[in-house]
User: What shape does this take?
Amino acid sequence: MNLELTDLTLMQAIEALRSGEISSRELTRACLERIEKLEPSLHAFLHLAAESALAQADEADRQQVTGDGQHKPLLGIPIAVKDVLAVEGLPCTAGSKILEGFVPPFTATAVKRLQEAGAIAIGKTNTDEFAMGSSTENSAYGMTHNPWDLTRVPGGSSGGSAAAVAARMVPAALGTDTGGSVRQPAAFCGVTGLKPTYGRVSRYGLVAYGSSLDVAGALGHTAEDVALLFSIMAGRDALDATTQDVAVPTIDLVGATLAVASGRGLAPPLHGLRIGVPREYFVRGIQVEVEAGVRQAVSVLEGLGAEVHEISLPHSEYALPVYYIISPAEASANLARYDGIRYGSRIQAEAMWDIFYRTRGRKFGAEVERRIMLGTYALSAGYYDAYYGQAQKVRTLIKRDFEQAFERVDVIAAPVAPTTAFPIGAHRDDPLAMYLEDVFTLPANLAGVPGLAFPVGFDGAGLPVGMQLMGQHFHEDVLLRAAHAYQQVTDWHMRAPSL
Amino acid sequence: MDFEAVIGLEVHAELATQSKMFCACPVVDTTQTAPNSAVCQVCSGMPGTLPVLNQKAVEYGLRVALALDCQIAPFSIFARKNYFYPDLPKGYQISQYEQPLARIGRMTIVTSQGEKVIRIRRVHLEEDTGKLTHVGRNGQAYTLVDLNRAGVPLLEIVTEPDFRSAEEVRAYAEALRAILRYLGVNSGDMQKGVLRIEPNISLRPVVAAGFKPALLGTRVEVKNLNSFRALERAVAYQIQRQAELLEAGKVVQQVTLGWDEAKEVTVVQRVKESEDDYRYFPEPDLPPLAVEAGWVAQIRTSLPELPYARLQRLREQYDLSDYTAKLLVAEKSIADYFEQAVTAEPSVPAKSIANWISGELFGLMNQAGVDAAGLRVRPAALAGLVKLVSQGQINQDTARKVLAEMFASGEGAEEIVKKRGLGQVSDAGAIAQLVKDVLAEYPNEAAAYLSGKAGVANFLFGQVMKKAQGKANPQIVRRELELQLAEIKAD
Assistant: This one.
């Protein structure tokens, strides 16, 4: 077969497996070979599960033949999992030295649902330590490089997953998004990435960073691919009390649900869709090509039948300070459990308290330490009202902005990040500049609404430009449908970096 | 200067649910279970795990809150209480802070001074911590962690500072324990630590009536009190000690104290320089706890009659003494036992049944270390025994022996009496014959009696009873003795 198996989209791979054109072993082996070839230059993975993946591929092939796996939409599909999601039997470090050697005895619900649908976890991808960062430079195990330009960052914190998909190491991957960690690396690497509604996908097995913001999402080449993974992961989970019982849209494998054009005669596919363009997201500091790319994409959507309205999200400008109070506050509590006693690695000492001081003092990276201190401060007696309390109030205002906007429009179109992928080390000595990377993605997390990033062009340096669509709570299908329609008439999402 | 004590209580009661507060692990007796055998990824705080609220724990908490006449919050919020200690796997305890499950309740206590209402400030749900054991000393020291208790549901019940004496504190503690046991939510076993009572004590000068009360003095807290006696002693000790300090012009230091059971003194555990900062914030992993009015109403109607109400009712309905009624209601199972016995034999005076339970039966139970659950004497059987006594079929002495046998074998009273031929002889003819035989056998003693030595009557009585193998009805024996002796005299 001349076909490059690793170039297949998720949907194409499923087709090929079902028709018997390829086997899961062939596909999995092709992925492993490509990973082996590219890892030295990209370092997208922290752990590979080659043996168990191949064993599962053989089992999938058996089920494909016998028909036992007929009801499993992802039968035999290898996927990569960000290393903050637990997979039973595979190491889970969250990119941190403090969790070195930790092998969870359970699997995150989101991953488990994909596995039950036949997916194979081929390995764990690199991430900023505890998902705190926008470049993967904060990984304690070395950074990931952008497949489009190895001197640049892939974004973060799900940089390993985005790079792995962009480099065709896997057809799709899982990430997590607390302040933009799926969408921003998706934009930097030219892939499609969905941050679902908060409460839509279980957080059980997701190493907590900002518990009121964290959500697991999917990265793939197409909106269709991402939609399929999403529809399987989503839904109420008895193990996560914050998940909600809202009907999950079913995604037909042949794309009937998404192929909006069908059954509507000659009506343009997005007829009636109201798109809001928030003026606050197109101001100072934004790279010209990013703004141009997003506006161009909006007019493509308009051409497909959508109406475009200018809207305002006035409190979005406070999203950054609000986020950098709430997420560190939650993190300061979430990371208190890492004491080196029950799991992970420890620095031994004579006295009990010295074990804690040394383990925590040396095994957390600088950014993690910074956020623990920020959060501890924001929650302290005498400061709580001025920081955490105030931030929660402003968060409510940000949420309200979105509610009001969604009275007028169905989706909101905005840039994902102010720039395309920046050079490695560009923000090394300036945490605030790094925080500004997330300025357009944070509001969706604070409001809990879904966001979808997908490629809409390239800048002069040949780097992908991304756009995000944000929607109402639990309206992921609207975003996916719009992006799918866009991807039917463009091919940015099918471009591959030359590696 | 005179001082008065101002005391408030914080009580932590483990809730005896099947599973833990936030995971499916069983709640076990940590004194009887291998360490870390009832532990999972959730209660050991593994990364990525999340709490899921145990509805039964909420229900148990509501039972207590309603029994304490509290106002139930339609919405309450879980919060993270942050502090770092090796018995706390997550580095924070899930508790409730600003919006607890319930507030503003009351409980009536009875002391030698009469009745008094203690105000309840709040009742909230939280999770228990693990247990640390420090082993060895000097260089070889290490600490063992047992997480079996981590995540067990706890109810914290906080009173207003309404206590003025150690006696009041003890009365409250005992009454609260009885309520918890009546509700079936806690075994009340202080030795095992499932019920932990922590008093905070301060003194203030007594001011004349009509004046504004003096400001509260510095407060100390006392921990690890594992019996009511220790609680009462520790409070009394602190009141005395603080009074001595204040009278000597010294200051009371803000400390947390422990109780040294052997020396009967409090010892300083920790000096508090400032209030602890627990950095509470709402628990993002748990949505607000909504308690619907319908649920509350349902729980309210399902509450059993509580100890205080039952005490009053038993006293009046069965004409019991305060003392006996108190003994009976201390345990719900005993009070139930009493009332079942009364129902089984309505013809038997309830008072007699009460006395048999609180006297003879309690004695046997204490001796054998048996509680109501392990008791082999069924309520109807006990009533049957008391009935035999009240009908004069057996006498008190025989009844005691029969009860001991019932206690050991679980057989009925009548069965035992029949089997052993213990039935009391009340047949006047048969007894008359026995008396006649004895008087014939002991003519000298009979003569002595008749010459005025009244004391000899008891000897003669004893001889008759001996002949009757203890089964003769003593009243009839006495009457017959007197009758026949009078006849001899008349001759």
Summary: Residues 5-259 of chain A form a domain with the Amidase signature (AS) enzymes fold (CATH 3.90.1300.10). The two ends of chain A are 21 Å apart (CA to CA). Chain A touches chain B at residues 84-86, 92, 94, 99, 102, 104-106, 108, 203-208, 211-212, 238-242, 329-330, 332-333, 335-339, 341-343, 352, 356, 376, 379-381, 384, 388 (CB under 8 Å).
